[in-house]
Design a protein that fits this description.
single chain, 399 residues, mainly alpha, 15 helices, globular
Length: 399
């Protein structure tokens, strides 16, 4: 064999090996691309819907009484008799004067809407984080951007829900202001008429106690829509959308960061418990399952409290816009915008007026957000344990 043949054979062999390496490299790239697509392909909407529904139900029922206190503190007049009351005292006052039913008045719309909103917010965040922005664990701004992407969509749901909830939460107060003279007259009649029957006196007392215009959220919505059109439900939509975007962006950004920090902290505690304080090979990935599980509600609670603390002034303006009295009678509807509401709050209450009701809000946020992630993961586990769904993998937030 000549040297030319040998060189040609080696060149041909080299080209063949190079083609094989190119094919293998192309195959590996396809495998990596397939692995990146798998999380989206194995997405189970039924599980997410059930998990979001559970998170919405648990969070709403636990946090609604404190949400009522927050709304009352945000919108009460400077001359109000309850202005100087603390959050606990105000809640006690509401229970004593309005009854237990007032604490959950208007809870219907949040129960319905938050199951939808939680599903949309959790799934949109996961989608954009994994497939668009590729956010990382820890303090990564891409997680905030991923969370904000879904805000314009689920704000279409939360604006009517917040409007009806705020109107119902303030309905007793507004009705009391409108009927103050009538209530005083009824009280005088009750005291002066000793000849009235027990039934008549109970009727007058009941009329005094039920001061609101609306008995249910559905009645409120039907009355206001019939008088002012469907657009009345979207009062304060712009400020609510901006607040939602700021809140969920901060919420998921802080959640991923807090979760990483708490797992490191709890893994250190687990290391000390197991007596491996001197071991240099132990990482938070090797920690006991309880530390990873406990980090989820802790991170959820702290992220919710942080997000509420930072976005609370916007929520105060939103409550002022959506809580303004709206006549149930047909006619020209004059609504105060967000800028006018902000100016009014600063003029009447000062800068600290934007933080009226912040303490029950942060307490509620910690309680609700911590329970929300736990309810979400618990619902997913129950779905798989009972065989209701076909997925056998853990939730995205327990990793």
């Amino acid at each position: 064999m000549t040297s030319a043949d040998t060189t040609s054979s080696q060149s041909s062999s080299g080209q063949h090996i190079q083609r094989r390496l190119t094919i293998q490299s192309h195959g590996q790239q396809q495998t990596q691309q397939t692995q990146q697509i798998i999380p989206l392909m194995t997405f189970h909407f039924g599980e997410e819907a059930i998990g979001g529904f559970a998170a919405g139900i648990v969070g709403t029922l636990l946090g609604f009484p404190l949400d009522l206190v927050k709304t009352r503190m945000q919108t009460q007049l400077s001359s109000s008799a309850t202005k100087q009351l603390s959050a606990v005292s105000l809640l006690s006052h509401i229970l004593r004067t309005e009854g237990i039913s007032a604490v959950y008045k208007g809870v219907g719309p949040p129960l319905l809407s938050l199951s939808i909103v939680n599903t949309l917010s959790f799934t949109s965040y996961s989608y954009f984080r994994q497939n668009t922005f590729h956010g990382r664990d820890g303090w990564d701004y891409k997680n905030a951007v991923s969370g904000m992407m879904g805000a314009p969509v689920f704000a279409l749901v939360t604006t009517p829900e917040n409007f009806l909830k705020t109107q119902m939460q303030l309905d007793n107060v507004q009705g009391d202001r409108e009927n103050k003279g009538k209530a005083k007259t009824s009280k005088q009649i009750l005291q002066s008429s000793s000849s009235r029957s027990v039934g008549e006196k109970q009727l007058i007392q009941q009329q005094q106690k039920t001061r609101g215009k609306f008995a249910t959220s559905f009645q409120c919505a039907r009355t206001l829509v019939s008088s002012h059109g469907i657009s009345v439900l979207y009062t304060g939509h712009v400020i609510n959308t901006v607040r939602e975007a700021a809140f969920v962006g901060t919420y998921f950004f802080c959640y991923e960061g807090y979760k990483t920090e708490f797992r490191k902290l709890l893994s250190g505690v687990d290391t000390l418990i197991r007596g491996n304080a001197g071991s240099s090979n132990t990482s938070h990935e090797d920690a006991a399952p309880w530390s990873k599980t406990l980090a989820i509600p802790m991170a959820g609670g702290c992220s919710g409290a942080t997000a509420w603390a930072l976005t609370f002034p916007m929520d105060c303006v939103r409550a002022g816009v959506q809580g303004q009295p709206i006549s149930a009678s047909p006619g020209i509807l004059k609504k105060q915008g967000a800028l006018e509401t902000l100016k009014h709050l600063l003029r009447s209450k000062g800068l600290m007026g934007l933080y009226a009701g912040v303490s029950p809000s942060i307490a509620r946020a910690f309680l609700v957000s911590g329970s929300r992630f736990s309810a979400y993961e618990g619902a997913l586990w129950l779905c798989r344990w009972s065989g209701l769904t076909s997925s056998s993998k853990g939730g995205r937030y327990e990793e």
